[in-house]
Design goal:
With 173 residues, this protein is mainly α. The protein is built from nine helices and two strands, in the order E-E-H-H-H-H-H-H-H-H-H. The N and C termini lie far apart (49 Å).
Protein backbone atom coordinates (compact mmCIF):
# COMPACT_ATOMS: atom_id res chain seq x y z
CA UNK A 1 0.00 0.00 0.00
CA UNK A 2 1.42 3.41 -0.96
CA UNK A 3 1.98 6.03 1.68
CA UNK A 4 -0.30 9.04 1.58
CA UNK A 5 1.41 12.38 1.91
CA UNK A 6 -0.12 15.60 3.12
CA UNK A 7 -0.52 18.38 0.57
CA UNK A 8 2.11 21.08 0.50
CA UNK A 9 1.03 24.38 2.01
CA UNK A 10 0.60 25.90 -1.42
CA UNK A 11 -1.66 22.99 -2.46
CA UNK A 12 -4.24 23.76 0.21
CA UNK A 13 -7.30 25.49 -1.28
CA UNK A 14 -7.89 29.08 -0.34
CA UNK A 15 -11.10 31.01 0.09
CA UNK A 16 -11.74 33.68 -2.53
CA UNK A 17 -14.68 35.81 -3.64
CA UNK A 18 -16.28 35.19 -7.02
CA UNK A 19 -17.77 37.79 -9.36
CA UNK A 20 -20.93 37.97 -7.21
CA UNK A 21 -18.88 38.49 -4.05
CA UNK A 22 -19.75 34.97 -2.81
CA UNK A 23 -17.03 33.20 -0.87
CA UNK A 24 -15.90 30.08 -2.72
CA UNK A 25 -13.02 27.65 -2.50
CA UNK A 26 -10.26 28.26 -5.04
CA UNK A 27 -9.23 24.80 -6.20
CA UNK A 28 -7.00 25.94 -9.06
CA UNK A 29 -3.83 25.03 -7.13
CA UNK A 30 -5.03 21.98 -5.23
CA UNK A 31 -3.89 18.46 -5.90
CA UNK A 32 -6.85 16.22 -6.67
CA UNK A 33 -7.61 13.58 -4.06
CA UNK A 34 -7.57 9.98 -5.26
CA UNK A 35 -10.99 8.63 -6.18
CA UNK A 36 -12.39 5.84 -4.04
CA UNK A 37 -12.60 2.50 -5.79
CA UNK A 38 -15.65 0.59 -4.57
CA UNK A 39 -15.61 -3.18 -4.27
CA UNK A 40 -17.92 -5.92 -2.99
CA UNK A 41 -16.40 -5.35 0.43
CA UNK A 42 -18.16 -1.95 0.47
CA UNK A 43 -21.64 -3.39 -0.15
CA UNK A 44 -22.65 -3.83 3.52
CA UNK A 45 -21.59 -0.29 4.41
CA UNK A 46 -23.28 1.25 1.35
CA UNK A 47 -26.44 -0.78 1.96
CA UNK A 48 -26.58 0.22 5.63
CA UNK A 49 -27.11 3.80 4.50
CA UNK A 50 -30.20 2.78 2.54
CA UNK A 51 -31.81 1.12 5.53
CA UNK A 52 -30.93 3.98 7.87
CA UNK A 53 -34.19 5.92 8.27
CA UNK A 54 -32.35 9.12 9.17
CA UNK A 55 -29.81 9.07 6.34
CA UNK A 56 -29.50 12.52 4.83
CA UNK A 57 -29.26 13.60 1.21
CA UNK A 58 -25.44 13.58 1.10
CA UNK A 59 -25.25 10.11 2.64
CA UNK A 60 -27.83 8.71 0.22
CA UNK A 61 -26.14 10.35 -2.76
CA UNK A 62 -22.74 9.03 -1.66
CA UNK A 63 -24.13 5.52 -1.21
CA UNK A 64 -25.96 5.28 -4.52
CA UNK A 65 -22.94 6.80 -6.29
CA UNK A 66 -20.74 4.17 -4.65
CA UNK A 67 -22.98 1.40 -5.94
CA UNK A 68 -23.10 3.00 -9.39
CA UNK A 69 -19.31 3.25 -9.54
CA UNK A 70 -19.02 -0.37 -8.44
CA UNK A 71 -21.39 -1.40 -11.22
CA UNK A 72 -19.52 0.76 -13.75
CA UNK A 73 -16.21 -1.06 -13.66
CA UNK A 74 -15.21 -2.25 -17.08
CA UNK A 75 -14.29 -5.83 -16.25
CA UNK A 76 -16.45 -8.11 -14.14
CA UNK A 77 -18.68 -5.66 -12.30
CA UNK A 78 -20.14 -7.33 -9.19
CA UNK A 79 -23.72 -7.22 -10.48
CA UNK A 80 -24.84 -10.48 -8.87
CA UNK A 81 -23.39 -9.46 -5.51
CA UNK A 82 -25.18 -6.11 -5.67
CA UNK A 83 -28.45 -7.81 -6.62
CA UNK A 84 -27.99 -10.34 -3.82
CA UNK A 85 -27.73 -7.44 -1.35
CA UNK A 86 -31.39 -6.62 -2.17
CA UNK A 87 -30.53 -3.04 -3.08
CA UNK A 88 -32.36 -2.90 -6.44
CA UNK A 89 -35.65 -2.11 -4.70
CA UNK A 90 -33.92 0.85 -3.07
CA UNK A 91 -32.61 2.08 -6.42
CA UNK A 92 -36.16 1.97 -7.80
CA UNK A 93 -37.48 3.93 -4.82
CA UNK A 94 -34.80 6.56 -5.41
CA UNK A 95 -36.14 7.13 -8.92
CA UNK A 96 -38.87 9.19 -7.26
CA UNK A 97 -36.54 11.06 -4.88
CA UNK A 98 -36.89 14.85 -4.92
CA UNK A 99 -33.17 15.28 -5.62
CA UNK A 100 -32.33 14.98 -9.32
CA UNK A 101 -28.72 13.94 -8.65
CA UNK A 102 -29.98 11.00 -6.61
CA UNK A 103 -32.49 10.11 -9.35
CA UNK A 104 -29.71 10.28 -11.91
CA UNK A 105 -27.31 8.06 -9.93
CA UNK A 106 -30.04 5.51 -9.14
CA UNK A 107 -31.10 5.29 -12.79
CA UNK A 108 -27.46 4.97 -13.85
CA UNK A 109 -26.97 2.09 -11.41
CA UNK A 110 -30.08 0.41 -12.82
CA UNK A 111 -28.83 1.08 -16.37
CA UNK A 112 -25.64 -0.80 -15.55
CA UNK A 113 -27.61 -3.76 -14.19
CA UNK A 114 -29.92 -3.68 -17.22
CA UNK A 115 -26.91 -3.95 -19.51
CA UNK A 116 -26.11 -7.42 -18.15
CA UNK A 117 -27.80 -10.80 -18.09
CA UNK A 118 -29.78 -9.50 -15.07
CA UNK A 119 -31.99 -7.08 -17.04
CA UNK A 120 -35.15 -8.80 -15.85
CA UNK A 121 -34.21 -8.10 -12.22
CA UNK A 122 -34.58 -4.38 -12.96
CA UNK A 123 -38.03 -5.03 -14.44
CA UNK A 124 -39.06 -7.39 -11.62
CA UNK A 125 -38.26 -4.62 -9.12
CA UNK A 126 -40.77 -2.34 -10.85
CA UNK A 127 -38.42 0.20 -12.44
CA UNK A 128 -40.10 0.60 -15.84
CA UNK A 129 -43.02 2.90 -14.92
CA UNK A 130 -40.72 5.13 -12.85
CA UNK A 131 -38.18 5.31 -15.67
CA UNK A 132 -40.94 6.23 -18.12
CA UNK A 133 -42.07 8.98 -15.76
CA UNK A 134 -38.49 10.24 -15.56
CA UNK A 135 -38.59 10.89 -19.30
CA UNK A 136 -40.71 13.93 -18.36
CA UNK A 137 -38.11 15.34 -15.96
CA UNK A 138 -37.05 18.95 -16.37
CA UNK A 139 -33.44 17.74 -16.00
CA UNK A 140 -31.96 16.61 -19.32
CA UNK A 141 -29.41 14.31 -17.63
CA UNK A 142 -32.19 12.51 -15.75
CA UNK A 143 -34.21 12.15 -18.97
CA UNK A 144 -31.21 10.81 -20.88
CA UNK A 145 -30.28 8.28 -18.22
CA UNK A 146 -33.87 7.03 -17.97
CA UNK A 147 -34.01 6.64 -21.76
CA UNK A 148 -30.73 4.75 -21.73
CA UNK A 149 -31.98 2.35 -19.06
CA UNK A 150 -35.25 1.81 -20.89
CA UNK A 151 -33.27 1.16 -24.08
CA UNK A 152 -31.22 -1.50 -22.31
CA UNK A 153 -34.41 -3.12 -21.05
CA UNK A 154 -36.22 -2.94 -24.40
CA UNK A 155 -33.20 -4.28 -26.25
CA UNK A 156 -32.94 -7.38 -24.09
CA UNK A 157 -35.94 -9.33 -25.37
CA UNK A 158 -39.12 -8.84 -27.41
CA UNK A 159 -41.39 -9.19 -24.37
CA UNK A 160 -39.40 -6.53 -22.52
CA UNK A 161 -39.51 -4.27 -25.59
CA UNK A 162 -43.28 -4.65 -25.61
CA UNK A 163 -43.44 -3.91 -21.88
CA UNK A 164 -41.50 -0.67 -22.31
CA UNK A 165 -43.69 0.37 -25.25
CA UNK A 166 -46.90 -0.55 -23.41
CA UNK A 167 -45.70 1.53 -20.44
CA UNK A 168 -45.95 4.66 -22.57
CA UNK A 169 -42.28 5.36 -23.19
CA UNK A 170 -42.76 6.44 -26.81
CA UNK A 171 -44.87 9.53 -26.07
CA UNK A 172 -42.25 11.35 -23.99
CA UNK A 173 -39.46 10.21 -26.32
Amino acid sequence: MAAVSLPAADDVPSMVNDENNNTVIDTSTTTPTPKKIYTVDDIPELYAIFINPVAGREEILSSVTGFRKMLSVEKNPPVKEVIDSNVLTNFVKLLTHSDEKIQFEASWALTNVASTEYTRKVVENGAVPYLVNMLLSANSDVREQAAWCLGNIAGDAPDLRDLVLESGAMDPL
